[in-house]
Amino acid sequence: MIKIENLEKVYKTEEIETTALNGINLHVKEGEFVSIMGPSGCGKSTLLNVMGLLDKPESGSYKFIDTELLKLNDKERSNFRKRNMGFVFQNFNLIDELTVFENIELPLIYNKVPATERKRLVNEIIERMNIVNRSGHFPQQLSGGQQQRVAVARALVTKPKLVLADEPTGNLDSSHGNEVMELLCELNETGTTIVMVTHSSHDASFSNRIINLKDGHVISEKINKNRTEELI
Amino acid sequence: MFRLNLKIALRNLWKNKGYSTLNIFGLSIGLAGFIMILLFANHERSYDTWNSDAKDIYRISIKWGPGQEEYSSSPAELAPALKEVLPEIVDYGRFYVWDMKQRLVSKDKNENFVDHIMGVDSSWFNLFPYKFIYGDAKTSLLSANQIVLSQKTSELFFGKANPVGQSLLINTKDQYVVSGVYEEPNTPEHMEHDGFVKKSSPGDGWGNGNYYTYLKLKEGTDKEAFVRKLNQTFKKLPIVKEDQGLKEVEMFLTSVPDLYLHASSAQDPTKRGNAKIVTILVLFSSLLLIIACINFTNLSIAQSVKRAKETGVRKVLGAARSNLITYFLTETGIQCVLALLLALTIAEVGMPVLNQLMEVKLSLLSYSNPGQLIIQLSLVMTFVVILAGGYAAFFLSSYEPVKVLKGNFSRGTGSLWMRKTLISVQFIVATVFMVALMIIRQQVTYIKNQDAGFKKDHVLVFKVRKGDNRRNFSQIKERLLKVPGINAVSRVNYYPGVKAMQVIDRDFNGGKVSNLSTITVDFDYFKVMGMPAQRGRVFSDKFATDSNAIVVNESAVKKYGLQKLIGSKWINDRVIIGVVKDHIQKGMETAAEPTAFVVEGRGTNSADHVILKMDGANTQVTLEALKKVWTAVEPFPFQYTWLDQSFAQVYVQYIRLDKLFNIFTYVTLAIAVLGLFALASFSVQERTKEIGVRKVLGAETTDILRLINKSFLVLVVIANLIAIPVAYILSSNWLSGFAYRTSITVWPFVFASIISVLITVLTVSLQTFKTANAKPVDALKYE
Lengths: 232, 783
Hints:
The complex is a heterodimer of chains A (about 230) and B (about 775). Chain A is of the alpha/beta class and about 230 residues long. In chain A, helix 3 (about 100-110) packs across helix 4 (about 115-130) and helix 5 (about 145-155) runs parallel beside helix 6. Chain A has one domain: Rossmann fold. Chain A is globular and about 45 Å long. Chain A contains 8 helices and 10 strands. Chain B has about 775 residues and is α+β, with helices and mostly antiparallel strands. In chain B, the strands form 4 sheets. In chain B, strands 4, 5, 6, 7, 8, 9, 10 and 11 form an 8-stranded mixed sheet that branches. Chain B has a 6-stranded mixed sheet with strand order 16-17-21-19-20-18, covered by helices on one side. In chain B, strands 1, 2, 3, 12 and 13 form a 5-stranded antiparallel sheet that branches. Classes of the chains: A alpha/beta (about 230), B alpha+beta (about 775). Chain B: One of its GO terms (molecular function) is transmembrane transporter activity. Chain B: Pfam families: FtsX, MacB_PCD.
C-alpha cells in the first residue's frame, strides 16, 4: 500500500544542517501493523510526519497505493490526508474547548459529512471505544487513558486506510498503555493499516514488523512471527 | 530596590524590542493627539486670564422687553446711575459703538489702516490694567486728543523709540498726541485693540444702547444675588419712572473670562469661541488617549504569559504582591515616559496642522503658560500609568507561583475576558468616531450646498469710507457701471455673513411689530444679489416713492401676517412693495429671521458697503479698472472681499471640525487595528496547538481563518451594537444646534459597521494566515 523510496529530509538552522532522513526505503502492505523504533533523534517522528503529509521531504518518492503523494499541492495533500489517514499522538492533542463528542466529530466536519450521518458515526465509535458515559465531558475531566481512547476514536471515526501513531502510550502508565495497544491490535485485526513510532519494545511487540532507524537510515527490520502468522 | 527594578525593567524592554516599540508608539500617538487638543483647549480657555481682576469684571447685557433678544450693548447713562446706588460697583468702563471703526493713521508719509482703536472711558485701565511701557495709565486718557497705542501699533509708526508726546494724524484731519504705549498681554482677549482714545460722546440718551458697559465689582460679590439686586435697583431709578420704555428692561451680567466662550447676547462685537466644539474636542481626544491606554494594557497582558514564569520565580524567591505591582508599574512608567517624549515631539511637529485648521498660533516650545502645561501633563501621565499599567500589574502579580512553574498556566481565565472587553471598547470608540465623521461630513456638504437664497459668486464687497460718497452715490454708481465686466452696483450695510443686524420694534395699527431685522440697501441690491421678488417687485430708481418703500422677506410675511398688506402702508408709513425669498444671513445655526429691506434715506442706518456683481469673464482686468475708479473717489488703499469667501466664514468652523475628525478617526482606527493585531497575534499564538490539531484532522487554511475570525467578529458586532445608539444620540444632539441640518440616515451606521468588520477580518486574517498556512507539524512542535 505504501512505497517509500530514497526519502531525504534535512533540517536547516542558521548554524547547522541536520539530516533527519537519509535515503529511507520502506514498503508497507495493506493491513500491516508496523512499528518504527530507534534512539532519540534518529528520524522516526520525522518519517511519521512525512508519511502523514504533515511535513515535506527534500527528495524521494512516496506512493500511497498508486498515487505519488509528494507531487500534490497543499490543498490536495490536506484533502488526501483527511480522507485516508488518522493520527494518534503521544500527548493526545485533544482540543480543550470541545467535548469528547465534539472532538471526535471534528474530522467528520472537515470531511463535510452531513450532520445526521456524523452523529451516527460518532455514537458508533463512542460505543465501540467504551466511552459512552464520557461523551459530554471535556478532555481535562478525563484520565490519560480515557483521553487517548478519545484520540484513537477521533483517528478512526473517518474510517481511514492508514492510522499513524506517534508514541501512543508515551504519556500513559502501563495498564492504560496496554489498553491502548490492545485497542490498536483490535483495529489492525479489522483491516486497518497502522504505522506506529515507539520507544518501547513492549509496545512494538504488538506489531507485525519492527523497523529500526539510526541517523536517518533503516538499519534493521524484524518480522514479529507471532503476529505475522496471524496476518497470513 | 528601585534601581534593581529599573535595571530589570530596562533589560526586559530591550529584550522585547518589537513589542516595546509597538507599545510605546501606540501610546505616544494617543498622547500626542491629546496634548495637541489640550494646548488648543487651554488657549481657548485662556482668554482674558492675564487680567487677575477679570473674574470680578462683568459686562452688562440687556433685554429691552419680554421675548426680545439679549443685546450686549447698553445706554451710556446706565453705569453712572447704577454706581451711585450700588456700593458693590467699584468702578466701571465703557466703550462707544461708533468709535469702533477702522482708521487711517498717519505719521508724516507713514500711513496705515489701524483696525481697532477703541473709544473708551478714561477709567478703562482701572478695569484692564495693561502694562504701560511708556507713559502713565492714570493720565493717558484725560483729554480728547490723547491716544494710547499698543506696542505693535507704536512700532508701526515709531519703531522702538518712546513716542510719548509725538503726534499722529487720524483720518487725514484729526491731530492726536501719543500719551502712552502698553504691552500686549500674553493671553488672548475677547476684544481686539490696537490702541485707545477717549470716547467721542458722553452719551446718546437712555433709549440708545450704543455703549458696551463693564462693571468692576467688589471682590467676592455673589453674582446671582447681585444680578437680582441690580434689576430691582434699576426699576427704582427715577428715569425708569419717567420713561415707560425702560419698565420692562432686564439686565444680565457675563464675567469677562466667560465672554469668549459663553456670551449669549446678539450683536456682540467680541470674539466668539465655540464652547461646544472645545468640549467635543476635549472629549474625543480623551477617548483617543483612553483607547491608547487600553491598547497598552492589552499588549501588556498579551505578553503576560511570557512573563508568567519570571513572576513565579520572583514569588518563590519571596517577592510580595506589592513588590511585583511596584515592579510592573515601574516598567509601565518607563514606557510612558518614553511615550511622552515621543508624543511631545509628534505634537510639536504636528502642531502647524492644528494651527492652520483652528487658526491659532500654538507651539509647545513657545507656550505662554508652561507651568500649567507641566502640571496638566503630570496629572495625565499619572492617570495614564495607572490606567495603562494598573490592570497588567494587578493581573501579572496575581499568578499562583506553583501553577505557573508547573507550566499549568491555562488560558481562558479572567484575563481573556478582560482583553476582549477592552478590544470591544476600542471598537465602540472607533465606530462612534467613524459615524460622527460621516455625519459631520454630511452636514458640511449639506451646508455648502444649502441654497443661501442669493447668488454669491462674482459678488464683490468693499467699504465706503466717506459719508459724502454715500450721499452722492448715484454718480459714483454711473462711473462704476461703465467699468467693463461690472453688471450691477448697489450698497448695503449688513451683507450676508455679517453677524450684526439692526433689529427694530415699531407699533402698527395698535399692535406691536417686534424684532424686525432691518437691512439698509440701495436700488439694485436685489439685482446684485440675484434675489427676485416672489410677489410684487423690488426697489427700482424708476419709482421716486421707492425711497420710502419697504421690501420684506417671507418670514416677515408669515410672522406679522402681511399677506393682505402687500401694496399698502406698513410701519413708518412705508409701503410694502414686494416680498423676497428668505435668505441665510447669519449662519447655519440661525433660521431666517423676519427681515425688512429699506433704501438708505432719512431715519435709516447707512448702507456703507458697495456691493457689486461682475460677469466673471475677466475678473483681474475688471478688478484693476474698478480699483482705478474707486481710488479716484476715495484715496485710500483699496481693500475688498468676495461675498462667497466672506460668507464661507459662517461655516468655516465646521469644515475645520470635519478635517479634525478625519485625523481623529484615522488615528483611532490605527490604534484599534494595532490592538487588534496584537490580540490576534496573541490569540493565534495561544491556539497554535489547536490549529495544528485541526489541520491534522483535515481543516484547511480557510477553516482556520474562519475559526479565529469568528471569535473577533463576535466582539466587533457587539461593539457596533453598543456604538450605534451612542453615535446616534451624540450626532442628533450635535445636529439639533443647526437650523439648517441634514437628516440622519441609516448609511453612516451601515458603512461604519461594514468598515469595522472588514478591518477586523483583514487584520485578523493577516495575522492568522501564517500560522494557518504553516505545515501542521510546525504547529505541533510547540508542544
